Amino acid sequence: MLFGRRTNLTSKSESQAPATESASVPAGLSIAAAFSWRILVVLGLIAVLIYLIIMFKYIVIPFLVAILISALLVPLVQFLERHRWPKWIAVTATLIAFFTVVSGLVVVVVSQVRLGLPSLQQQSIVAFEGFRSFLSNSQLQVTDEDIDGLLAQVTALIQRDSQALVSGVLSVGSTAGHVLTGTLLTLFATIFVLIDGKRIWAWAVRLFPRRARAAVDGSGQAGWITLTTFVKVQIFVAAVDAVGIGLGAWILGLFYGGFPLVIPIAVAVFLGSFIPVVGALITGILAIFIALVFLGPIPAVIMLGIVLVVQQLEGHILQPLVMGTAVKVHPLAVVFSVAAGAFVAGIPGALFAVPLVAVVNVMTKYIAHGSWRTSVRPTVRDVLGNGK
């Protein structure tokens, strides 16, 4: 009897041990642990996703490019359809117009570069010799032997890494094949999104559980509205940057006797502006370099001022008022997302970072808000109205 009572007391104390042990854990630590493992799971999923994207980059990048192009062209196709154009004619006309514009820009840039590149090479040599003479006659007392020694070190560095350069040259065929394959994938994906994008999205939604389909569908539509608005606004911002810097270069050439490659510089700034914050500034350095080589230090400083003025216009007026409506992401988040994208995937990562962050941000807010429970399709006003 006594033995049995002792056994009951022992089992009772053992059953109370977990409760006492759990009660001894501070509430803050328990909450932190609960959040920590959830954060680790999310980070693990993101890491796996990034790994898969890098592994299949030759498929993912063309698909993302096709999505961006489709976000630009779908509104035009819908506009033509609202004016009673047959869908296949609307899609065909839109694609022909798009490729005509792109081909025209390529032809203009190539022709202008072919005309201006020889003089740029000659003037660069003259400018280098002048800079070399300046260093020799300045207080720095840099001799020709010092300059030749520095050039010899650079040459030795290039020769030391010649194996990597040769392997890069040998991989040109493979790279060209990847570019061709990526171009074809982009073309086919764009065509099918323009023709049958709604059915493709409906098929993707059906992959999710039935209870989650309304949230996925609504968030996807909200993300698509954000993406289309972002692309249109980004083209406007890029055009302002290109016109501002190109016009400044042209006016500068009028006062200082010619500024070559104005059109290629404007096109480079336009394309570079699709990488927010830093793209137009980096391509603007090209204009400053050409001004320095052809016109001298003072015009180069003036060109630097033009680039900075255009960047201030974009950063303080266009980005907050125009781009802020489309992206709904803080400028600090834009900077870090571009940096992270460039670190992970280079130029493609920097290009897709901001639209990806903007779309994910809007989709997350839409699901968290719970408006998908009303079964009402999100509109442009709902997504972009007040930014909340």
What does this structure look like?
With 388 residues, the protein is an all-alpha fold. It is built from 13 helices and no strands. It is globular.
Write a concise keyword list for the protein shown above:
388 residues; mainly alpha; 2 domains; disordered N terminus
The mean pLDDT is: 78
Largest sheet: none
Percent range for helical residues?
over 70%
> What count of helical segments does DSSP give?
13
Strand content: under 5%
Computed over alpha carbons, the radius of gyration is 29 Å
Number of E strands: 0
Order of helices and strands: HHHHHHHHHHHHH
- How many domains is the backbone divided into? 2
Indicate the topology:
Elements: H1 2-23, H2 27-55, H3 57-82, H4 87-137, H5 144-160, H6 162-170, H7 172-205, H8 213-256, H9 262-272, H10 279-294, H11 297-327, H12 331-369, H13 380-384
In short:
This protein has about 400 residues and is mainly α.
